[in-house]
Amino acid sequence: xxxxxxxxxxxxxxxxxxxxxxxxxxxxxxxxxxxxxxxxxxxxxxxxxxxxxxxxxxxxxxxxxxxxxxxxxxxxxxxxxxxxxxxxxxxxxxxxxxxxxxxxxxxxxxxxxxxxxxxxxxxxxxxxxxxxxxxxxxxxxxxxxxxxxxxxxxxxxxxxxxxxxxxxxxxxxxxxxxxxxxxxxxxxxxxxxxxxxxxxxxxxxxxxxxxxxxxxxxxxxxxxxxxxxxxxxxxxxxxxxxxxxx
Length: 246
Prior knowledge:
Layout: E1 7-11, H1 15-27, E2 31-35, H2 38-47, E3 52-56, H3 64-74, E4 78-83, H4 88-96, E5 101-104, H5 109-123, H6 134-137, E6 141-144, E7 147-150, E8 155-158, H7 168-178, H8 187-193, H9 203-217, E9 227-230, E10 234-237, E11 243-245
Parallel strand pairs: 1-2, 1-3, 3-4, 4-5
Antiparallel strand pairs: 6-7, 6-11, 7-8, 9-10
C-alpha cells in the first residue's frame, strides 16, 4: 500500500460516483477530498495538499479537460481523467490531453486503483521502486535543445518558454529512454515500465506519447533530433544531438 498520507482530489459532479470513488480511495489508505466542479476543485487545491487529481471529463461549467489543461500549465501534479467515452479515438484523445492517464466508465475498482498507483509512482519519486543498478547508470541531467532536464529532481525547464512543462507520463518516458541512451527501447518495454497493465494500452498509445514529447522538446517534431524512431526496434534517445551528464 502506498503512503497513507497521500491525498486524492475527486472532481465529480455525480454524488453516487463521487462516493464510490471516495470509498475506493479510502480503502487504499489514501485521503479522499471531493469537489463537484472545476471551480470547487480550485478552492480545494488552494487550501489543501493534493498529490493526485481524479477529474470527470463532463463537468458542469468548466469541462474536466479544460480544468486539467489549466492545472497542468501550473503544476506537475498527477491527473487521471475519468470519462464515459471509450472509442479508439477517445483513447488517443485521452493521451493527448494534459492528463497522465484516464479510466473509462464503468470501470473495475482494481483498474482505477492500479491507474492511481501507477501515476503516483511516476509523480512522486519516493514511491518509485528502485531497480538494481539504476542509480549507477541513470544520467543526472540532460540538455536537449532548449530544454534542461534534471532527472534526479524530476524537473524540466524550457529556456525559451518557462511556461512549458512536461506531464508526468512524458517525463517518465524521457526517464526510460535516458536509462539506455543511444540504444533502442521497445514499445513493449516502455508499456511495462509505465505500469500499463490494462489491455487498453497498446503500441499506438506509446506512439502518441512519443509524439506529445517530441512536440515539446523538438524544434521540428517531423525531423526529430533527440527522440528518434528505430524501425522494428522502438525509440532511441540520441545524445549525439544533446548533452548528457552522469
